[in-house]
Amino acid sequence: MPLAIGIVLGLAGCGLQVPADPNGTLERVSDGTLRAGASPDRSLIEVRGDEVSGAEADVVEAFASSLDARVEWTVGSEEQLVTGLEEGDLDLVVGGITDETPWIDRAGVTRGFADMPGADGRNVVMLVPLGENRFLSTLETFLDEELG
Amino acid sequence: MSRFGRTDLPDEQATDLRKAVKIEVFTICYTTVTILVVALVLGNSQAMKTAWVEDILSLTPQVAFLVALVFVRRKPTRNFPYGLHRAMSVGHLVAGVALFVVGATLAYEAISGFLSGDHPTIGTIVLFGSSVWLGWVMVAVMALIAIGPPFYGRYKLKLAKPLHNKLLYADADMATADWHTNAASIVGVLGIGVGLWWLDSAAALFISVGIVWDGVRNTRTAILGLIDKRATTYDEKAVHPLIAEAATMLRGLPWVADAAVRMRDLGQVFHVEAYVVPVDPRTPVSAYESAARAIAALDWKVQDTDVIPVSVLPPEADPGFGREAGRGSRAGASGAGPAAASERGSDASAGATSDRLKGER
């Protein structure tokens, strides 16, 4: 057992980043495209035609530009978007989702951010693909700095 | 505190029992703190969840011990003529079954999580103003709380022997092996960290198999006791040497032609039925009574002794020698030769405490 810990720590020491993305989401998004899903919300996400705007959309745009990525929006219902996350078609889902979300078993959920402009006291979270822990941690760290 | 049923405990056992109660209470407090701390950092790791549930389950032997002790100490009554010693075995059985059922459930969760390819998600927390990956906190917590159990486990192991308490022994045994759980959960979390998501399921399976195994062993020990298996040592490794000692001592009495005993473990004390074939069928009752007192004087655990005159020994009663009884035990090697035994027997009175009573052989 100590051997196993040693091997894992050794792997971590040899340039492997901890935490890592098993499916490499962060690496693919950086300098590329952030495929974001949006579900309309009265104060956070506004959808007009193909245009997605609103306070939470601005935060996603800012996150993308921190990774030198551009955002490609998909609009749909929450279930459609979560299925998109599961099937690897989306990297991020937003839309006034709170930390009470029932999608916890089908998506990675960020911490709640009550300081999101327009959150109206809700603890707003974003959804990412399950187990993409480097991407999730990078997003949370960004949100801490942006909204904290 | 200083008695088990009808048995007044010798000083050593009374002291050890007080120590055992203290360490069990301490363990419950320690484990409660670890359960609360781990709950704060649980996250989505199946290995962490499994280790956490194991922590909760590890409280059952201690609670069972303390609850059973209340009953075990009561004197026998008309209603409960053998005392309430079995309360300890019942507690042991409950703990064993709980471990088995929950362990099996956790093993199932680990396997189904692996088969459905669940990628465990662990994000960050804000610690002292900066975002830290929660996995590092999990590793630190699991490493820190692994320190306690080996120490109190070894301490309990030392108490289980003189008290002849199998529940305490099982509890101690699990505590000394507890670091396996912590190490496995650390491997699982670090596996998630480097992107090997399946290591989490593997670690969870390893931990839950350990819980199932503990459950099987404890259930088995408790059931063997409850269906009156011949008394064994506290660790189940050998036939209890008191069987051979009692039989040998009886055969050493001048009026006894042959003797054999049935000895069952009621929990921490034994119930002894000693069958003797007298040389002369007119042997007075007082001889049987003094033989019973002589057996009681052998050890604090054998105060509940009946000496029964028979013309032929029942085949299932253990004569305390030969292949059946001698395997692994130190029958006859403890200095209780027939002559010495009968000498001691003649002036021994029930409950007498001599040096030979101290400690379990």
Overview of this protein structure:
- The complex is a heterodimer of chains A (148) and B (361).
- Helix content of chain A is 36%, strand content 17%.
- With 148 residues, chain A is an alpha/beta fold.
- In chain A, the strands form 3 sheets. In chain A, strands 4-1-5 form a 3-stranded parallel sheet, with helices on both faces.
- The longest helix of chain A has 15 residues, at 133-147.
- Chain B has 361 residues and is mainly alpha-helical.
- Chain B folds into 2 domains: 3-226, Alpha-lytic protease prodomain-like, CATH 1.20.1510; 241-352, Alpha-Beta Plaits (2-Layer Sandwich), CATH 3.30.70.
- Chain B has helices spanning 11-40, 46-57, 59-72, 86-115, 134-145, 148-163, 166-176, 178-194, 198-226, 241-252, 285-298, 322-326, 338-347; strands spanning 3-4, 7-8, 124-127, 130-133, 256-265, 270-278, 304-309.
- In chain B, the strands form 3 sheets. Chain B has a 3-stranded mixed sheet, with helices on one face. In chain B, strands 1-2 form a two-stranded antiparallel sheet. A two-stranded antiparallel sheet of chain B has the order 3-4.
- In chain B, α3 (59-72) packs antiparallel against α7, α5 (134-145) packs antiparallel against α8 (178-194) and α8 (178-194) packs antiparallel against α9 (198-226).
- Residues 323-361 of chain B have low confidence and may be disordered.
- The chains are: A alpha/beta (148), B mainly alpha (361).
- Chain A binds chain B through residues 1-2, 4-5, 8-9, 11-12, 16, 18-22, 108-111, 128-133, 136-137, 140-141, 144, and chain B through 118-126, 131, 133, 135-136, 180, 183-184, 186-187, 190-197, 199.
What is this structure, in a nutshell?
The complex is a heterodimer of chains A (148) and B (361). Chain A is built from 5 helices and 7 strands. By secondary structure, chain A is of the alpha/beta class.
